[in-house]
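Fold this sequence, please.
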Amino acid sequence: MYRLAVSELAHSDLDNIVSYIAVQLANPTAAANFLDEMEKCYGYLKSNSHMYERCQDAYLERTGYHKATIKNYVLVYKVDEAARAVTIHRFFMAHRTM
């Protein structure tokens, strides 16, 4: 089992995403569904941190970043095997190349 840490930037990204979906799109149900999917992803990362692909960006791939797609968003994370930890660094719109 891996320990999960979420960066301040990722927390901010997540707040912005949920607010956008719930308020600007006026769809609190979709925002709740997104949070449910995110929680599932977090669970997968804790048990099998390498199940998601490496980022396609050359620098991010070379430095060991992975990406997980959740609905229309991409979660970018890195695994520290020595510490048995996963750090979630950012959330981005899925159309951005990672």
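The radius of gyration is 13 Å. The first strand starts at residue 3 and ends at 6.
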